[in-house]
């Protein structure tokens, strides 16, 4: 992955946006090196680094003697380089996907025993959503939000970006991961039904705890992710 701010990473991002918006459609052939380097006003060395990075991310494929072609990426990739929390929608968009969220369940519940110390409340708002990419379920998230702080969250349109809602409606300036544990879990019956996989299918289990700029807990919970559609880069 390109270093943030480097010239070739900027070129990567510009080409990626053209792919995402459809200016460079899937399976189309990219302009040649001379045309691209002239278009982005960079040297061929810089352009080749950008092309190599995009190929590594699965967005393009170089075929020797034929050219470079746009490809449909298979996996959503998340780069873990800081404590900053990132929504699934953001992660998917960076990888060239458009993610859609569907609320499965939202209700006030007694805070689970294992989260009472963390959330510091006896009552929480439980939000269960599934994220799909290209109509294929990829992640099931089960989050608990401390009450009364997040009263009214259940009345918002949670098919939209949750973190944007939190920033706008609850005036949260920064979201960061206090702790994150990644492990492997086998899909239970309920998880298999939502993610449209067989019982026992291997899932990535992400245990999260997100806090704001004042170190107050925003939410904690578990995210179940289809292992062949998502990968972490540390």
From TrEMBL:
Q: Name one GO molecular function term.
A: DNA binding
Residue ranges crossing the lipid bilayer per the database entry: none
Kindly indicate whether the keyword DNA-binding belongs to this entry: yes
Q: Which residues form the HTH gntR-type domain?
A: 5-73
What InterPro entries does the record tag this protein with? Bact_HTH_transcr_reg (IPR050679), Chorismate_lyase_/UTRA_dom_sf (IPR028978), Tscrpt_reg_HTH_GntR (IPR000524), UTRA (IPR011663), WH-like_DNA-bd_sf (IPR036388), WH_DNA-bd_sf (IPR036390)
Q: Which BP terms does GO give this entry? A: negative regulation of DNA-templated transcription
> What keywords are annotated for this sequence in UniProt?
DNA-binding, Transcription, Transcription regulation
- Specify the taxonomic lineage: Bacteria, Bacillati, Bacillota, Bacilli, Lactobacillales
Q: Which SMART domains does this one have?
A: HTH_GNTR, UTRA
What Pfam families would the database entry show?
GntR, UTRA
The identity of this protein, by name, is GntR family transcriptional regulator
